[in-house]
Specification:
globular, 4-stranded antiparallel beta sheet, mainly beta, 5-stranded antiparallel beta sheet, 12% helix
């Protein structure tokens, strides 16, 4: 392998910014919290989709949206994107990667939803699976049969970059 054929972190602005954020989080691990939080008043659940707005304490004018789509096969798909950004991110990977589009579990009877000010809980797939969303700081925990299997943003390192105008 020729190392010169590959870009290093020092040569990528995105990598340098993200690495610096992670280093600050590790350095201040006792007091560090992620700047992202769910806006509870914007949360809704219908037709097998949980939607909410995400605020960012570092950039209060930039807003993100969070969608969790629950499918009939028990899979949950998470989408997060900037709202009203300079341009939309590429979102057509599903057209090329999946042979048949996933079918959403749209029956309201398939879900037990509890929305509170501090957290949201959604049980699905016959009660076998559960998604717990802690609002501030944002933390998503997927449980199967009561055991945590996937925890997103456990260490508070979530970083969603917004589009910027080059100076």
């Amino acid at each position: 392998v020729k190392r010169g054929d590959f870009k290093t972190c020092e040569q990528s602005g995105f990598c340098k910014r993200t690495r610096a954020l992670a280093d600050r989080a590790v350095e201040h691990s006792k007091t560090w919290t992620t700047p992202y939080a769910v806006v509870p008043s914007s949360s809704s659940f219908s037709d097998g989709i949980y939607r909410s707005s995400i605020s960012n304490a570092l950039f209060p004018d930039i807003h993100f949206s969070l969608e969790v789509r629950f499918q009939q096969d028990g899979v949950a798909r998470i989408l997060m994107d900037e709202v009203d950004g300079l341009r939309q991110r590429y979102n057509e990977a599903g057209m090329w990667a999946v042979q048949t589009p996933p079918v959403l579990a749209m029956s309201e009877g398939d879900f037990e939803v509890e929305m509170g000010k501090a957290a949201t809980s959604i049980k699905y797939a016959g009660g076998k699976h559960e998604l717990q969303i802690q609002h501030s700081p944002i933390l998503l925990t997927f449980l199967r049969d009561g055991q945590a299997h996937i925890v997103l943003n456990e260490r508070g390192l979530l970083n969603m970059e917004h589009f910027r105008v080059k100076p």
